[in-house]
Amino acid sequence: MLRSQTKLFALGKRQLCRSMSKSCDLTLVEVDDKTGIATLTMNKPPVNSCNLEMMRALKDSMKQIEGNKSRGIILTSSNNKVFSSGLDLNELRNPEQERLVAFWKELQEMWLTLYLSNLPTAAAINGHALAVGCVMASACEYRVMLPGFTIGIHATKFGYVVPPFIVNSYLSVLPRPVVERALLQGKIFSTDEAQQINLIDEVANSKEEALSKCASFIGSFAEANPVARALTKRQLRAEFARTLLDEPEAELKESLEYITSPLFQDSLDAYLAKLKSKNKK
Ligand SMILES: CCCCC/C=C\CCC/C=C/CC(=O)SCCNC(=O)CCNC(=O)[C@H](O)C(C)(C)COP(=O)(O)OP(=O)(O)OC[C@H]1O[C@@H](n2cnc3c(N)ncnc32)[C@H](O)[C@@H]1OP(=O)(O)O
């Protein structure tokens, strides 16, 4: 198994840190010296799918940003078509038990790190944000999206039960009746639809504009005491994080049982075959 490593480079006025795998930098972090805001870029070709190493890199980068006393985090993608395609489905297919346990624990920890970050968080959604891609954007405090893309959690459409903490990600942004309908339909929203239901806060016409709008949002906390802000955020969000904070092992056990069931594996096979066949036509 590859271990992600983190390196720090001085780059002019900026610091750049990278979480690396053998073949590429999975995440890139740039801290703007003037604003103190860190941009965390997902950089796992072709579609930023979240495998074990990617989620570890994301978690490590976020912890590093918090440790560097940055003023906020903007999550974005180096791919100008895909923000993230969600969990790497290959991790779920006929998994080896030890790796599956590590993978699911990393998902839990990555989500908790983002959802409960002490820092203001914003997502510059510069491409499709599907399933856990949407969950990561929803875990941020603010979302700016480019037109012409899609966002949503479509798990039920291809036969997956939605885990409770993923339901909670939506519930922290959307009203309950909207969440219920969207999850049960497996609804994927266009940028316009997402704005209408307030799944996203703003639309921007370029990645630069999206980053700038996210930076303005983070700047809006300039007058707030960072410690008071962080503790208040944690109080507000603790309820939705409760399952994973108090009983991560129970959630893990339930998810593992479900993922390794023939029911799940069969629908995953069919879904992966459909996804691959798209490119063979
Ligand atoms: C009661 C207890 C309950 C417990 C429940 C426990 C577990 C349930 C698990 C359910 C959780 C689900 C969360 C998820 O995040 S699952 C991931 C779902 N994601 C998707 O369905 C996205 C699928 N991808 C796409 O729709 C498209 O790829 C796209 C993102 C719109 C980009 O389209 P495009 O630019 O055209 O790129 P391609 O489609 O050609 O993709 C390139 C390449 O990448 C492969 N790929 C895409 N997404 C994934 C992925 N998520 N995982 C692995 N691989 C992916 C795709 O197959 C192509 O591969 P080839 O080049 O080899 O054909």
Detailed description of the structure:
The relative contact order is 0.12. 47% of the residues lie in helices and 20% in strands. By secondary structure, the chain is α/β, with parallel strands linked by helices. The protein has one domain (6-280): 2-enoyl-CoA Hydratase, Chain A, domain 1 (Alpha-Beta Complex), CATH 3.90.226.10. The model is unreliable at 1-13 (pLDDT under 50). The two termini are 34 Å apart. The strands form 2 sheets. The chain has an 8-stranded mixed beta sheet, sandwiched between helices. It binds ligand LLH4SW3U.
Comma- or semicolon-separated keywords:
281 residues; alpha/beta; 2-enoyl-CoA Hydratase, Chain A, domain 1; eight-stranded mixed beta sheet; four-stranded mixed beta sheet; 10 helices; 12 strands; 47% helix; 20% strand; disordered N terminus; binds ligand LLH4SW3U; transit peptide; mitochondrion; acetylation; Enoyl-CoA delta isomerase 1, mitochondrial; Enoyl-CoA_hydra/iso
> Ends: how far apart?
34 Å
The major pleated sheet works out as: 8 strands, mixed
Tally of contiguous helical segments: 10
Number of strands: 12
Percent helix = 40-55%
Write the CATH architecture name: Alpha-Beta Complex
Task: List each distinct ligand once.
Answer: ligand LLH4SW3U
What value does the Rg take, in angstroms? Answer: 18 Å
Total domain units: 1
Order of strands side by side in the largest beta sheet? 1-2-3-4-5-7-9-12
DSSP strand content: 15-25%
CATH class: Alpha Beta
Reported by name, the CATH topology is: 2-enoyl-CoA Hydratase, Chain A, domain 1
Which geometry do the CA atoms define? globular
| Category by helix and strand content | alpha/beta
Mean pLDDT: 91
